Amino acid sequence: MSVDVTGDNIADAVLDSWTYDPLNGVGKPATSQRTVNAAIERQQVFTYDTLARPIQTDTTQQIAVGQTKAYTQTLAYDTYYGRPKSTGYPNGEAVGTYYDKYGHPIRSFNPADGSVYREITAVNGGVRFGQAYPGGEGLD
Question: Is the pLDDT of residue 134 over 60?
């Protein structure tokens, strides 16, 4: 495919490619890569646990000619039901999730200090969730 990606009014050769079937992830993506004019612009490697759930994405992004930056995003699951319990982001931040006894996510929080980002405090008959934000008003 040719398109002007670099903004210099010259058609650039863009190639996207994927590989599949990594360890523990049969049928799932293993890697993805985008090249522009034969230079790798972005590359991702996906890792799965023994239950074929995604647990890590490693991304290498070109930020300037000859310069790249690596990023990692992680996912963790609870051991009893296998629900997502936390997501770790490349900047070091993380978001954890608590669930009610029915398996519905009811709270998003910062695992480092326990501060609550969002909490479901009530559900009405129409199954609309009421959300309360720390220091804010609830939604009806």
Answer: no
